[in-house]
Write a sequence for this structure.
């Protein structure tokens, strides 16, 4: 009878040690997973910003009446996209993300960007239209 109790105690100790090890591995991997998710969100946001900026630049360079449509997929966590400065033939577009993250892109042309579109997570078409020599209009639709 004594051996059976000892075997049960040994098994309980081994299971407790295994659970402790597994918990430690899960906690460490959770931190790594959060870091990877944050980097992936920033990478996706940068790609969206590049696409939008390229569409603005293309419509501007093509001249009045040019219209470009692009299909973008916004990641979660975007709080705002704004044009923060237009000076010295440069335009800077900033995308604010949750937390302290942000991405930006500067273009070397002088144009005012008018209009707006939703930055909620999901896919949508965005239309960029050159309405006069110094203004580009941008608007979007959900798919």
């Amino acid at each position: 009878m004594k051996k059976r109790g000892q075997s049960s105690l040994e098994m309980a100790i081994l299971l407790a040690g295994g659970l402790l090890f597994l918990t430690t591995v899960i906690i460490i991997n959770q931190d790594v997973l959060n870091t990877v998710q944050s980097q992936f969100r920033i990478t996706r946001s940068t790609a969206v910003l590049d696409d939008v900026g390229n569409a603005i630049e293309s419509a501007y360079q093509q001249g009045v009446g040019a219209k470009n449509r692009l299909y973008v997929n916004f990641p979660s966590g975007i709080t705002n996209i704004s044009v923060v400065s237009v000076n010295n033939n440069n335009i800077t577009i900033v995308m604010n993300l949750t937390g302290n993250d942000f991405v930006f892109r500067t273009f070397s042309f002088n144009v005012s960007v008018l209009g707006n579109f939703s930055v909620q997570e999901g896919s949508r078409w965005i239309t960029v239209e050159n309405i006069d020599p110094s203004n580009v209009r941008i608007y979007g639709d959900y798919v």
About this structure: The mean pLDDT is 82. Residues 74 and 122 are 5 Å apart (CA to CA). Strands lie at 67-74, 78-87, 90-97, 102-107, 112-116, 122-132, 135-142. The radius of gyration is 26 Å.
